[in-house]
Write a sequence for this structure.
């Protein structure tokens, strides 16, 4: 005879506790318990705490299943919500207990399927439902960038959070919920720029003509006692051809490669002494047909011999601090021979128009052999590619300890010039 269910009382927290009574073994007609159909273990399972029938559970508390000391054991547990999100868990080696190891989603319904085995080897099954309560904490919003569209192969993805996340374990929860997929597949990683911003880039540049999708699964997920994930709008972008422009400041030439083939070499002038162009890999931020440039924006006093205020055509921006690749008809005599600019890369009007029409946001502009500073990884545009892959992964909460910024002990490397 099977025993009556027994109700346990959970003290101090809301747990789903399932007691397994192995008092009855199911048998087949041939007497082999392993060939028996799974019996309904309803009268062998008791639990305390709310279920779909009796109320809601605190989503901040774990699920716990416990087998009784009568020979029975738990063999398998699956817990999944109505959106298909599974709860990770850990089963003791002897099958005596199972507990969840990942956060529950608030305001959600879970189906919990428990497989058991009694001391005679007969299998048992029980399906339970669990409803979690509505959240009373603050919501963590996420905004993905850039906006939908087609970009160059150097375009990083961004995730802007509405609240700061500093704790490494909490960062890992956030990062785990930010899903990036691409066709074709790439090896990529998130990097925490600061406590409210993350960037994602592949190990190498994106493939040409790829489709990249980013979404969040953080809705309802507990980040900490006062913060849960909110719904976020997914984003899809595409990449175009692989366009890379390499400016060799020492030889005063800019070479443009498309799909790794050289398509044009342009004589240029770059930053003169005291105003050297930054070395390193930069990403095209935008293009302006005509832009007004003032020397005061880079700290030159008005009225000095270096001051200027002019309209510039075909301006392709590569830093927020005012570095462009643009048409500079006033310096044609120096282009290909000398560096006379205040930090921008200048070329003839015809070449400037061609360059303007050839590149798009996300394309790459690399500067080599300049006496200038190295391009900053963050804060002045997208200098993400100036970090090695090891440095980049060091900024991930999942692969590198969630340190914001890059590891100082390893020297950043420039992307090689295409062959």
């Amino acid at each position: 005879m099977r025993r009556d269910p027994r109700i346990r009382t959970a003290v101090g927290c809301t747990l789903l506790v399932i007691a397994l009574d192995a008092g009855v073994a199911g048998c087949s007609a041939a007497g082999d318990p392993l060939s028996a159909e799974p019996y309904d273990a309803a009268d062998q399972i008791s639990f305390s705490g709310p279920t779909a029938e009796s109320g809601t559970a605190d989503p901040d508390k774990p699920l716990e299943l416990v087998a009784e000391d009568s020979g029975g054991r738990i063999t398998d547990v699956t817990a999944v919500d109505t959106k298909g999100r599974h709860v990770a868990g850990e089963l003791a080696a002897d099958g005596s207990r199972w507990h969840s190891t990942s956060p529950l989603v608030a305001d959600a319904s879970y189906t919990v399927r428990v497989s058991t085995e009694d001391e005679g080897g007969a299998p048992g099954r029980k399906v339970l439902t669990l409803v979690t309560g509505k959240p009373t904490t603050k919501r963590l919003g996420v905004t993905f960038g850039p906006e939908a569209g087609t970009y160059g192969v150097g375009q990083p993805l961004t995730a802007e959070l509405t609240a700061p996340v500093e704790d490494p374990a909490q960062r890992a929860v956030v990062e785990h919920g930010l899903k990036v997929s691409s066709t074709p597949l790439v090896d990529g990683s998130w990097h925490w720029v600061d406590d409210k911003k993350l960037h994602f880039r592949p190990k190498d540049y994106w493939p040409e003509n790829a489709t990249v999708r980013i979404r969040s699964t953080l809705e309802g997920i507990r980040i900490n006692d006062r913060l849960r994930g909110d719904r976020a709008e997914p984003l899809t972008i595409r990449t175009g051809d692989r366009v890379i422009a390499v400016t060799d400041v020492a030889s005063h030439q800019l070479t443009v490669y498309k799909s790794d083939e050289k398509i044009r070499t342009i004589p240029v002038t770059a930053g003169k002494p005291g105003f050297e162009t930054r070395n390193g890999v930069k990403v095209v931020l935008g293009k302006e047909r005509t832009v007004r440039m003032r020397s005061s924006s880079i700290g030159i006093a008005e009225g000095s011999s270096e001051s200027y205020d002019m309209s510039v055509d075909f301006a392709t921006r590569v830093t927020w601090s005012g570095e462009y690749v643009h048409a500079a008809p006033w310096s044609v005599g120096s282009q290909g021979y000398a560096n006379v600019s205040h930090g921008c890369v200048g070329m003839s009007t015809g070449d400037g128009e061609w360059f303007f029409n050839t590149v798009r946001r996300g394309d790459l502009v690399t500067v080599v052999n300049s006496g200038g500073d190295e391009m900053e990884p963050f804060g002045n545009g997208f200098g993400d590619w100036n970090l090695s892959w090891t440095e980049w992964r060091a900024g991930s909460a999942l692969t590198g300890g969630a340190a914001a910024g890059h590891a100082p002990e390893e020297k950043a490397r420039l992307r090689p010039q295409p062959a």
The radius of gyration is 30 Å.
